[in-house]
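Take a look at the protein record below and flag anything odd:
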Amino acid sequence: MSEHSEPKEINPSYLPHLFHKPQLDASVFVAPGSKIIGDVVIGKNSSIWFNTVIRADVNFVRIGERTNIQDLTLIHESYKKSPTRIGNSVTVGHSCILHACTISDFCMIGMDSTLLDDCHLEEYVLLGAGSLVTPGTKIPAFSKAMGRPAKVVGQLTSQEIEMLKWLPAHYETMSKIYLSENWKQFSIDK
């Protein structure tokens, strides 16, 4: 009778791939359940929220400073073709798919949006929830875009520009609360 052995579980949040190991600034917050794999570099004061997957096993992923990648987002790239680049002070909403795309500084990606290969969002773009940015699409700076496929629907107002500046600061504050571990003391039973 052969012995039954349990499968080996790979469970660290950071996994190397081939010769590449994720490089995160010491100030980065990575929430439980998230996985960061391969050639990934994440800048200071950025945050990776619960159950996000960043898999850089066929190209690289670069995430700038003060950028927040919210819960359940998936980031990948294209083999031997296109990496994924995300700038500084970017807000990526919950459950997005970012594949081999470029997102410039101070953009907000609405929840459940998909960005496909070689699309480019220039700085200060507000992308509506549920949008699909098709391969090769370029969204110009200071634009609002939405839809499936995403189309520019207007220019940003001064209030929207201020919101795009405020969101990264808000998430930086939130991540510092989590990093301080004070959140572990919170109980709804009190």
Notes: Residues 4-10 have pLDDT under 50 and may be disordered. The first helix runs from residue 158 to 179. The radius of gyration is 18 Å.
